Amino acid sequence: MTRLTGNALRLTVFVGENDTWHHKPLYSEIVHRAHAAGLAGASVFHGVEGFGASSRIHTARLLSLSEDLPVAIVIVDSEERVQAFLPHLDELVVDGLAVLDECHVIRYAGRTKNQDETDAKGKNSL
After folding, report:
1. Residue 16 DSSP SS3
2. What is the C-alpha to C-alpha distance for residues 69 and 51, in angstroms, rounded to an integer?
3. How many CA atoms within 13 Å lie on the side-chain side of 57?
């Protein structure tokens, strides 16, 4: 397991949920490549409304239901590891936005098998 504390970089990639890479969701391809690259972690967040370079508003509101809502993929790891991952984005992200932020990791811990069982019973481990 990757150990991560202290100064780090947060890579956030904004794409549309319908963006694809070889018939697979683009956000999924980014997460799987981050995993294969051994990065500390990646999460995908589904937006309910937003717009980007096209200036077209995408929304989940019922009256103007969009089929291409915004998605944010967030990856946090050391500066060296995130910088080494950036060439993957050059290949994958045709339309979208990628930003880097400096951050400070205060806690990075994995779950044990017992914690997963406790969470499944409705008790949060945090």
Report:
1. strand
2. 9
3. 7
Q: What is the tens place of the pLDDT at every residue in 82-118?
A: 999 999 999 999 889 999 999 999 988 877 666 555 5
The DSSP annotation for 61-98 comes to -GGG--SS-EEEEEEEE-HHHHHHHHHHHHHH-SSSEE
Q: Is 27 exposed, middle or buried (0-12, 13-18, 19+ CB in 10 A)?
A: buried
**pTM of the complete model:** 0.78
pLDDT single digits (tens) 54-64: 767 666 665 55
Task: Tell me the residue type at 51.
Answer: F
- Read off the tokens for 99: 């930003």
Is residue 14 within 8 Å of 49, Cβ to Cβ? no
Which structure tokens are listed for 29?
Answer: 């391809």
Residue owning tokens 């098998």:
113
